[in-house]
Write a structure and sequence with these properties.
- The chain has about 450 residues and is mostly beta strands.
- Helices cover about 0% and strands about 50% of the residues.
- The chain has no helices and 34 strands.
Length: about 450
């Protein structure tokens, strides 16, 4: 061989191999040549070549060509052997076997995520992340991978993962897994970062050296509801505190509107209207609002205020979303009594009007029974008996009357009395006086007895 070794660029097309005689000959010289695989492979890296070179008398140099087959595979330089044999009219010199090196001229492939964004449902357990080479390589390619927090947090949303991917020659795709940690909290979709680094026999693609993995939340929104269906507050307590709860904590900010409306209670009289919005920060499960209570001195039935929730955001309405606030009355019942302890009526007046009063206005219907009984007057002769009657005070009333019928006669007599009594009060207590006297004032004239006088004549 004319040289101890040969080399050719992969894209050179052919390699020219020179064969020389160390001196000219007067005879025709022949020698066979051939190629054989080293690290290069006939048919893929070069075309197998063989033949016979003939040196005419006086010639000292001949050559043959080895076709080189180009590819796009990044690979190590490859070699094939060139062999001379069976010389005629000559002997083999040194070297009779040499190496032809095919110098690779292909660029390294790029290594990148494919695609650059991935997504996984929270309940899938793990996400498979794919990394690819831009082209097959004849070399072993390695690249490091790692995860890092975006809006997702390692240890609560996913398990931090890192390692090295190895692509054997000819492989163009590898993958790794990211474990996903499921929870029951409704939250926005969360993102973690994926990065590649330290490529060997490749370069990082752009922008495929980084990617994102989105964890798609699969939890239902919580429900928002009153903590109970009924609340109560003493009328003198000033305010009622109403608690609203979420069924479970949320990773989102939750809001809901609240409002009051009249039940049997009246806004502005019994309570002050309250409305607004409650906001639950992420992780909070309880909020409250206040309803101002307006006290009065009126004895009344317990009164109710309606409570409602509406317009939830990042939640749904649970049960109960309507509730009742009872304002518990703490005012004493009024007393009911006669307006005075004694009444009087002339015998000829026909009736006596008796007044019964409440000590204070009441918000409830009040009733009380009344009755008459003989004092010195006699029922049926002097008055008409009332065995029992009932007075009804509507809310706001403080005075009621009843009548006692007086029976006149023509008999001059002493004034006579009737006993008046109250009993069985409802939504009131008996005050003082609960017993009174009605005097029937006699109005008959005195009658004079005239005796006739008889005069007699006396004679002595």
């Amino acid at each position: 061989f004319g040289d101890p070794s040969y080399s050719v660029n992969e894209s050179g097309g052919t390699a020219i191999i020179n064969i020389t005689l160390n001196t000219s000959s007067s005879a025709v010289v022949e020698v066979n040549y051939a190629t054989s695989d080293g690290t290069a492979t006939a048919g893929s890296d070069y075309s197998d070549t063989s033949g016979t070179l003939t040196f005419d008398p006086g010639e000292t140099s001949q050559s043959f060509s080895v076709p080189i087959l180009e590819d796009t595979l990044d690979e190590a330089n490859e070699t094939l052997d060139l062999i001379l044999s069976d010389p005629v009219n000559a002997s083999l010199g040194t070297p009779s076997t040499v190496t032809l090196t095919i110098v690779d001229d292909d660029g390294s492939p790029t290594v990148q995520f494919d695609p650059t964004s991935f997504s996984v449902n929270e309940n899938d357990g793990s996400a498979t992340i794919w990394v690819t080479l831009s082209a097959a390589s004849g070399l072993t390619v390695r690249v490091d991978y790692a995860t890092s927090d975006g809006t997702a947090t390692a240890g609560s949303d996913y398990t931090d993962t890192s390692g090295t991917l190895t692509f054997d020659p000819g492989e163009t795709s590898q993958s790794f897994s990211v474990p996903i940690l499921q929870d029951t909290r409704d939250e926005t979709d969360e993102i973690l970062n994926l990065t590649l680094s330290n490529p060997d026999n490749a370069t990082l693609g752009a922008p495929g050296g980084s990617a994102t993995l989105t964890i798609v939340d699969d939890d239902d929104a919580p429900t928002v509801q009153f903590s109970q269906s009924t609340y109560s507050v003493g009328e003198s307590e000033g305010t009622a505190t109403i608690t609203v709860n979420l069924s479970t904590e949320s990773g989102k900010s939750v809001s809901v509107d609240y409002a009051t409306s009249d039940g049997t209670a009246t806004s502005g009289v019994d309570y002050t209207t309250a409305s607004g919005m409650l906001t639950f920060a992420a992780g909070e499960t309880s909020q409250s609002f206040s309803v101002p209570i307006l006290p009065d001195a009126l004895d009344e039935a317990n009164e109710t205020v309606n409570l409602t929730l509406s317009n939830p955001d990042n939640a749904t309405l649970g049960a109960p979303d309507n509730a009742t606030l009872t304002i518990v009355d703490d005012d004493d019942a009024p007393t009911v009594q006669f307006s005075q302890s004694t009444y009087s009526a002339g015998e000829s007046e026909g009736t006596a009007i008796i007044t019964v009063t409440l000590s204070a206005v009441s918000g409830q219907s009040v009733s009380v029974d009344y009755a008459t009984s003989d004092g010195t007057a006699t029922a049926g002769d002097d008055y008409t008996a009332i065995p029992i009657g009932t007075l009804d005070f509507a809310p706001g009333d403080t005075s009621k009357t009843f009548s006692v019928e007086i029976l006149p006669d023509a008999l001059d007599e002493a004034d006579e009395t009737i006993i008046l009594t109250l009993s069985n009060p409802d939504d009131a207590t008996l005050g003082t006086p609960d017993s009174a006297t009605l005097t029937i004032v006699d109005d008959d004239d005195y009658h004079y007895l005239y005796l006739p006088i008889i005069l007699r004549n006396h004679t002595d």
